[in-house]
Structure formats: C-alpha cells, structure tokens
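Email to the structure team, subject: YjlA model.

Hi all, the expression group asked for a predicted structure before they design truncation constructs. Nothing fancy, just the tokens so they can compare against earlier work. One-line instruction: predict YjlA, return tokens.
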Amino acid sequence: MRPIILGICAAFFFAFTFVLNRAMDLSGGSWIWSASLRYFFMVPLLLFIVGWRKGLLTLFREMKKEFHNWLLWSFIGFVLFYAPLCFASAYGPGWLIAGTWQITIISGSLLVPIFYETIQTEKGLIRIRGQIPYKGLVMSFIILIGVAIMQLEHATKLSVKDAVLCVIPILIASFAYPLGNRKMMEVCNGKLDAYQRVLGMTIASLPFWFFLSIFGYFIVGLPSKEQVAQSGLVAIFSGVFATVLFFAATDLVKGNMKKLGAVEATQSMEVLFAVAGEIIILSAPLPSAVSLFGMMLVIIGMVLHSWISARKESIKSDAVSA
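Reply from the structure team: attached below.
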C-alpha cells in the first residue's frame, strides 16, 4: 500500500507541471525555457538534499563506473520525457496534456518484455523475462477510457494540427519516462536511493539542457522573470518532490513488473489534480457531468489495477510457500 500512496502523492505534485507549463505558455513563455530551467533549478536543490544526506561521494563513484549509461538513460528518461511534454503545452491546455499523458500507463506495461524480474522458486531466486500483465493492462484501458470521456467535450475544439503537435510529443514522452526510469534502476541496482538517482540523472542530462537553452537564446531570447519564477516552482514541486516520491515508490517494487505497473497507474490521478489546479489557478470552467463520470472511471480503473496486481502477487506467494 505504501508504494501506491507515494505514487498518488507524486501525481499531486506532478500536476503542477501541466498547470504551470500552460500558464507559462499563455503568458508568452517559450517551451524551451520551461523545459531547461526546471532542470537547472533542480541541480542546487538536489545537491543540497543529497549532500545533507551524505550521499554525494557514493553517487559520483557510481556515475563514474557507468557514465555512458547515465548519459543515455538520463537523456531518454528526462530529456525525451520533459522536452516533448513542454513542447506539447504550446498546442493544448493542461487538461489535455495531463489526459493524454496517461498513455504512459499502457506504455509502461508494453515495455515489460524487455526487462527481467526476480521471482522466488524452490531453487531460490531466479530472473526471468517479464511478461505483459494483460489483466492489469485491461484496467489501464479503463483508466484511459475514463480520461477520454472526461476530455471528450474539449477535444472537439482543437484543430487537427494542434491535436497532432500535442499528442505525438506526449506519446514519445510516455515511453521515454518509464524506459529511462527502469533502465536506471537496473544500472543503480539498489546502490543509490531515490534522491541520488534523481540528482545523478539530472546532472547527466545537463549537457542536453545547456544545448537546448543556447538554441532557445538565439531563437526566442532570454526568459521573462515570471517564467523563471514559475519554472522554479515546477522544479521544486514536480522536479524534486514528485520525481523523488515516484522514484521512491518504484524502488519499493523494483523487480516486480506487476506491482511496478500498479505504481505507474497511480499517475492517472494527475488528471484530477490538473483539472482542479486549472480551476483554481487559471480560472478554468468547472467540469461537466460527463467529465466527472470520466474522473470516476479513472479512479475505479486505478483501484482495480492496483487490486489485481496485489492479488496476483499474493496468489504467487501462497503458491511458493506451499
């Protein structure tokens, strides 16, 4: 239950990303600065946290061993995740970004076969290639149906071009985030905690953010003070709080792809939190009855997904004990 609670808390803080990124776009800020500034702000914050926890030397030692893997999977897990997400915010409201982002629930499940999971047998612990959790995947589709219903009345207001430029980048991000996260868990192999892993991935992704910011300087100029301040808030709420909570939740269930899928399913709550945030911060209209029905499906799908994953794990444990 603890990983699920941590996942829901992460979803709450992740929702700030969609609301604040949309606010920055509406005020004329470029997606380039929305993306890069977040990670620039994350570095000193995480350096302080990891340094206070006396984990910097261990982190740098582990990064030195496999720095090429840190560069690769940090680029995939952070750059190919967040840059497309910010780009999409220029072509759609926060609710659409958050709603479409829930495809990551299915994306994460489809990635399972390229990973191995550890199971207990009579001969001891063995590693086997993961199998797609089809029953959990059905529950994920329920979540996505709920998201689709919730956003149905709004989606018809977008042009085809805006819809494509909004959806395609999010699809890329939906595969990049779980892939980078899971691969870095394999690289770290339990030697680093969530704070260290997030800091390491942030540092390893910095060259790409520097390149993007230089590109942004020549294309759109420097960011406004308002965008800098809002990016700082995103860095604190989403970049530090949400990412660390989510990584901590996935660390608790690493090696178990079914439970990992359940944790990732909690991110569907971002839609509900994003809707509430847009109402409060951006004065968006209240959801209709249709949207509320969609929200109910999201919650039901998430609960069923988690319940099935926990039930199957319990049955497996009973079988091993017998």
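The CA atoms of residues 74 and 201 lie 5 Å apart. The beta strands are 116-121, 124-129. Ping us if the truncation boundaries need rechecking.
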